[in-house]
Amino acid sequence: MADMNNGDSAVKEQVASGFLGNLGKIYGGYAGGFIGFVLVLAVLEQMGVSNAILGYCFVFLTIGVYAYIGILSRTADLSEYYVAGRVVPPLYNGMATGADWMSAASFISMAGGLYLGGFNNLGYVLGWTGGYVLVAILLAPYLRKFGQFTVPDFLGTRYEGHAARICGVVVLFCASFTYIVAQCFGIGIITSRFLGIEFEIAIFVGLLGILVCSMLGGMRAVTWTQVAQYIILIIAYLVPVVWLSTTRYGIPIPELTYGQALNDIAQLEAKLGVVKAHAGAFLDATGKFSWTEFNNFWALVLCLMVGTASLPHILMRYFTTPNVRDARESVAWSIFFIFLLYFTAPAYAAFAKLEVYQNVIGQPIASLPAWVQNWAQVGGMLTIKDANADGILQLAEFGINQDIIVLAMPEIAGLPYVISGLVAAGGLAAALSTADGLLLAIANALSHDIYFKMIDPKANAVRRLTVARALLVIVALIAAAVAGTRPSGIIQMVAWAFSLAAAGLFAPLVLGIWWKRTTKAGAVAGMICGFGLCLYYLIMTQYFAMPLWFGIRNISCALFGMPVAFIVTFVVSLMTPAPSQQMQEFVDSIRVPRGAVAETGSIRE
Amino acid sequence: MADGNQLSPEKRVEYWQRTSKLMWTILVLWFVFSFGFPLFAEQLNAIKIAGFPLGFYMAAQGSLIAFVVLCVWNARAQNKLDREFGVAED
User: Fold this and answer.
1) Paired strand residues for A399
2) A6 vs chain B: nearest CA distance in angstroms?
3) How many domains does chain B have?
4) Is B56 in contact with A119 (Cβ distance < 8 A)?
5) In the prediction, which pLDDT does A3 show?
6) Does domain A2-591 match CATH 1.20.1730.10?
7) Lowest pLDDT segment from A48-52, A241-245, A369-373, A396-400
8) Residue B25 counted as domain residue
9) pLDDT in tens, A190-227
10) CA A484 vs CA A189, A202, A234, A418: distances in Å
């Protein structure tokens, strides 16, 4: 376990140098500094500094800070590059996981989805939190005990050989790439709006922000920038909702007061003639209970939760803690930090809806505020059509894309522009941090699992890191180029990524730990069938107009792939000879926190 | 580094049974909060607390609180189990 010893010496070295010992002070000072920066900009706004300049300050200053941390954390050590030296304390790994986890979809789109879909879209809120219970009880501690660099590493070791490793890399690549395209799309929306540049160019500006964080320092740099990004994104998410809750209901806890907002919305819905109530469960567009909505709800919850426990960029975060106990505690911290945002999203949606119903609908179109014009210019994200030509805005004439509701809410509610800038900085932090984590997961799988383990096992550290960094840049460029074509909405692309990961990786990971009888042939067959079916359903329904099976939308395509993966793995495993005694001892050894991991016979570092 | 194989085979089986029991307990509770409450949201919505329809509240917030509690509980209970069997890390 050479790399664990390296980790130990790195601990001592970094404690001695004071960084790990002073994390609280460093990040506390950083958070204070950021709040001070926002206050200074607020004063500048009152003094008449233009909105465009405020937007520039927020975008460039925050990216500058991330770049600074990224450059400070540069490293030439393999363990530092791949697993941050395994020195990250649980609390900070929790924050980093939170930022890694909460992407453009959570920050920008989710509250927007709740705004548009009401109860039916709460499946996202449930699905993106409950999965951590699965991570905690089924996977994280055991993967940490196994203690290598990547998720395909585990598959390659447990299922002896390149076949399982390649299947793992393929699933990882498809899921993470779909996911990262969505993040680039989000980054494009924000930089385009706040820098006032073309969407296609804005994507590449944002890309520089991603690369500068991850390229030099790998996991180590990404970890410490993600902690910084979490602090910004959570402040940015909470401030506008707390503000609205206080001004409207006098209590600064939006999670308590939005019950009142829900009531007000219900009254306005009656007045405006909205048939699909915001809080109504499983209603279709006509306001009636619908089994299709019901089935899609639980299917989505299941796919997102299982996808959580399968996405390599999240699982690999638990490789960075010093030991198994810390990995467990780190999962608990992760869900707590994630919970802070998800718990607030329904309030965000309710307040935004109330503002729109009260202060936008029914106004003369000619006197609508400037934000309407500004957002209408960003790729048709907001549309106003005076269908009956009466000059008054009706509900049906107002079209708003779910991806801009969070970003536009401060302006809709008439808050100072500095809050809009703050929210943009938060959205950018969310998208950049997730993009970094994903990019690293892809590039590490390609450089470590494909290049080092299969193509050139004799490569030295310098060469391996060079390959890893080159792949990082290439994957980032391709992702940005694909995002420029605007393939689909953010939240839909992200949900696809979860389904792909759930169908391909969950069964072999969980069974590999919890069922010793799982064989190599079983796992490989399971991955191929499960992932294959999921991908088939996704592509056929999305691009070839295949009718939906049982009305299940393709964002939940893992609903079919996942059970198939389990059944095929189970049946094929029982048909093939049981794994060797050596392999069973290996499984035993990763189930117990203390002690060495048993050798499996395959080459390990 | 201490060797995990110091556990006697019986102890090892017992440790894994206790770990599995904890896993299944939490998994069942996870299922109840993920699917049990939300899927009866329509019925629960008839009850209102502080303006919140209960079904909506459980799916938006109640179950989330439960997930955090489950994860914290899991970490504590499993750490205790590790110490009891002497397999916790130093």
Assistant:
1) A383
2) 14
3) 1
4) yes
5) 42
6) yes
7) A369-373
8) yes
9) 888 888 888 888 888 888 888 888 888 899 999 999 99
10) 11, 9, 28, 28
- Give residue limits of the domains in chain A: 2-591
- Report, as an integer, the average pLDDT of B1-27: 84
**DSSP assignment of A520-558:** HHHHHHHHHHHHHHHHHHHHHHHHS-PPPSTT--GGGTH
Chain A residues closer than 8 Å to B41 by CB: 119, 281-282
Please classify residue A590 by burial: count the beta carbons closer than 10 Å to its beta carbon, then call 0-12 exposed, 13-18 middle and 19+ buried.
Answer: buried
Optimal mutation site among A1, A592, A597, A599, interface B, most CBs of chain B within 10 A:
A592
Using CA atoms, how far apart are residues B16 and A284, in angstroms rounded to an integer? Answer: 47
Q: How far is CA A173 from CA A20, A140, A203, A248, A557, in A?
A: 33, 21, 21, 46, 17
Give the chain B residue whose CA is nearest to the CA of A343.
B61
Mean pLDDT of chain A: 90
What's the pLDDT tens digit per position in A18-42? 788 889 999 999 999 999 999 999 9
- CA dist A533 and A481 (Å) reads 28
Res A240 pLDDT > 80: yes
User: In this complex, do B82 and A122 lie within 8 Å of one another by their Cβ atoms?
Assistant: no
From the number of C-beta atoms within 10 Å of its C-beta (0-12, 13-18, 19+), residue A42 rates as middle
Note the pLDDT tens digit of each residue in A399-427: 888 888 898 899 888 899 999 999 999 99
CA–CA separation, B88 and A520 (whole Å): 30
Report if pTM > 0.90: yes
Rg, Å, chain A Cα set = 24
Look at residue B46 and tell me if it is in a domain.
yes
Separation in Å, CA of B71 to nearest CA in chain A: 5
Quick check: is B90 in a domain?
no
Q: HSE on the CB side for A148, CA within 13 Å?
A: 21
Q: Mind telling me how many Å the CA of A561 is from chain B's nearest CA? A: 20
* ipTM for this prediction: 0.94
* A35-44, A406-415, A555-564, B2-11: least confidently modelled range: B2-11
Could you tell me which residues are beta bridge partners of residue A382? A400
By residue range, what is the domain housing residue B50?
9-84
**Does residue A312 carry a pLDDT above 80?**
yes
Partners of B8 on chain A (C-beta within 8 Å) are: none
Query: Which residues in chain B are closer than 8 Å to A1, comparing Cβ atoms?
Result: 1
Average pLDDT of the residues in B39-43? 90
Any bridge partners for residue A404, and if so which?
none
In a domain, B59, yes or no: yes
Is residue A344 a contact partner of residue A238, using CB atoms and an 8 Å limit?
yes
Task: Give phi and psi for A456, each to the nearest 5.
Answer: -140, 75
Pick from B19, B42, B16, B52: nearest CA to A120: B42
Q: Which residue of B has its CA nearest to A256?
A: B50
